[in-house]
Each structure stands twice: as C-alpha cells, then as structure tokens.
Amino acid sequence: GSRVSVTIHVEGMTCSSCVHSIEGRISTFDGVHNISVSLDKKEARVQFDPRRTTAEQLREGIEDMGFDATLPTNFV
Amino acid sequence: MATQKHVFNVEMTCEGCSGAVTRVLNKLGDKVAKFDVDLAQKKVVIESALSSDELLETLKKTGKETTYVGQEN
C-alpha cells in the first residue's frame, strides 16, 4: 500500500512510560504502519496509509491521550 | 446537579503520566466538578455527575492501565 511519513511534535512526555503509552495506543489505529517516539526530540514519527487515516487524526489521537501534539507547519 | 466521588487506580509512573491524566480530565470541562490526581498512590479521585463507566473510558484514553475502585463518600 502507499505510505506517508509524518513527524509530530509532542510536548509533555517525561519518561519512557509516556513513550510506551503513545506507541502502544497509536500503533493500534487503523492505517498506522509504524510509529517511533523519541523522548529526547519530543517527537513521534509515524508511517501511515493516507487512504485510511490522516495526519490530523493521528495528532488528535495523541492530543486525546493528554499531550500537546502539533503537526509540522510545512506538512500537507 | 448531583455529583459522586469515584476512585480509580491508574498506572502512572511519572509526572508526564499524571499530567496527561490531568489534561484529559480538564477536557471534560464542566462535566467534572473536581478531581485529584495522586501520582505517589497511583490514585485518581473524580467528583462528577458522569457515570463511572464514562469516566473510565476517558481515563483509558491515556493508554494507561486503569481500574475502577469504587465510590467514596
């Protein structure tokens, strides 16, 4: 299938447990192929199928979990 | 509006976790009268008119292990 990659900026993670929560939950979303979250860089890199989900839905998913999530300004 | 105090155990390990719980509860706005997040005891007490099931759903959104303990007076 087709895949798109987006790096979402995430504020509010302070330990590896936060990282695991996000990876665990977002990886179950429909259309998500792969997610890797970096605590140091405060970002989540997500590979997804644009026909099944959108970057905005992924951002909302992280936001719903109680973190500040922002898409890169240049993302279309 | 009649509110009840519900107690939950939430598997929180750091301030990021308790901060996340605080934020999802804040998003409920008026539907939650008062809440207290206790990181050390891994306990969350919520005073709300919402049912324990609705509150449990909200807490589970954080992706953390959550169990309902019961009501508190």
Explain how this protein is built.
- Chain B: It comes from Acanthaster planci (Crown-of-thorns starfish).
- Chain B: Keywords: Chaperone, Copper, Copper transport, Ion transport, Metal-binding, Transport.
- Chain B: Residues 3-67 form the HMA domain.
- Chain B: Homodimer. Interacts with ATP7B. Interacts with ATP7A. Interacts (via dimer form) with SLC31A1 (via C-terminal domain); this interaction improves ATOX1 stability and controls intracellular Cu(I) levels.
- The complex is a heterodimer of chains A (76) and B (73).
- Chain A is α+β, with helices and mostly antiparallel strands.
- Chain A has helices spanning 16-26, 55-64; strands at 4-11, 32-38, 43-48, 68-70.
- Chain A is built from two helices and four strands.
- Chain A has a four-stranded antiparallel β-sheet with strand order 2-3-1-4.
- Chain A is globular.
- The mean pLDDT of chain A is 93.
- Chain B is an alpha+beta fold and 73 residues long.
- Helices cover 30% and strands 37% of the residues of chain B.
- Chain B contains two helices and four strands; from the N terminus they run βαββαβ.
- A four-stranded antiparallel β-sheet of chain B has the order 2-3-1-4, covered by helices on one side.
- The longest helix of chain B is centred in the first third of the chain and has 13 residues, at 15-27.
- Chain B is globular.
- The mean pLDDT of chain B is 93.
- At the A-B interface, helix 1 of A face helix 1 of B.
Shape of chain B: globular
How much helix is in the residues of chain A? Answer: 25-40%
* Low-pLDDT runs of chain B: none
Summarize model confidence as the mean pLDDT of chain A.
93
Biggest sheet: strand arrangement of chain A? 2-3-1-4
Q: Which strand-content bin applies to the residues of chain A? A: 25-35%
- Provide the β-strand percentage band of chain B: 35-45%
Characterize the overall form of chain A. Answer: globular
* Biggest sheet record of chain B: 4 strands, antiparallel
| Average pLDDT number of chain B | 93
Number of helices of chain A: 2
CA-based gyration radius of chain B: 11 Å
